[in-house]
Write a structure and sequence with these properties.
CATH architecture: Beta Barrel
Mean pLDDT: 88
Low-confidence stretches: 1-7
Helix content: under 10%
Structural class: mainly beta
CATH class: Mainly Beta
Number of strands: 10
Number of helices: 1
Radius of gyration: 17 Å
Largest sheet: 10 strands, antiparallel
Shape: elongated
CATH topology: Lipocalin
């Protein structure tokens, strides 16, 4: 961390509005196929914003493009876009809607909210590291998700329903 960077030990330094920089943000997921074959993929962030009030209330959203799923396997990617998985023609986005945030120390914050996938919403808490540099804040988080909780249950024998998702989202003060 450089001298101009700081961490999120309280939310007062974040009061105001923030806009996602999609070009500086990434979403990566990992799972297993046939119990042992690692599968890694990415999705593109479309948009996002955050608001931190003077009372430390946190709200915001992060919107991902479901059709951008990329595992470097064209046949698999086409299948992931069908009704068996993301059904991108009906559900073109995945959305995390933040409803609260609480600093947990050492530049980390718990962000609570709802994740909407395939038209179904479930509560999720993201434990994120936050680095601040000037008018830029970068949140980095990793969460394990059981995709079957969102109705994505299709699997070949031995394929995992659990996915590890890593998000690095860069926000600029608006």
């Amino acid at each position: 961390m450089t001298q101009t960077e700081s961490t999120a030990d309280d939310l007062s330094q974040f009061v105001g509005d923030w806009t996602l920089n999609p070009d500086q943000s990434s979403v990566t997921f990992r799972t297993k196929a046939m119990w042992v074959l690692p599968v890694k993929g990415t999705m593109k962030a479309l948009s996002g914003e955050a608001h931190v009030g003077a009372d430390a209330a946190v709200s915001g959203s992060l919107v991902l493009d479901a059709a951008s799923v990329d595992t470097k396997n064209k046949k698999r990617d086409i299948h992931l876009r069908t009704k068996d998985f993301f059904e991108v023609e009906t559900y073109p986005t995945l959305t995390f809607t933040a409803t609260g945030g609480r600093p947990t120390g050492d530049g980390e914050v718990d962000v609570t909210g709802e994740l909407t996938v395939h038209g179904q919403s479930r509560p999720v808490t993201l434990h994120a590291k936050v680095a601040v540099s000037g008018n830029t804040a970068t949140l980095s988080t990793q969460v394990d998700i059981d995709r079957s909780e969102w109705g994505l249950k299709w699997a070949k024998m031995g394929s995992g329903l659990k996915n590890q998702v890593e998000i690095e989202a860069q926000f600029n003060r608006s």
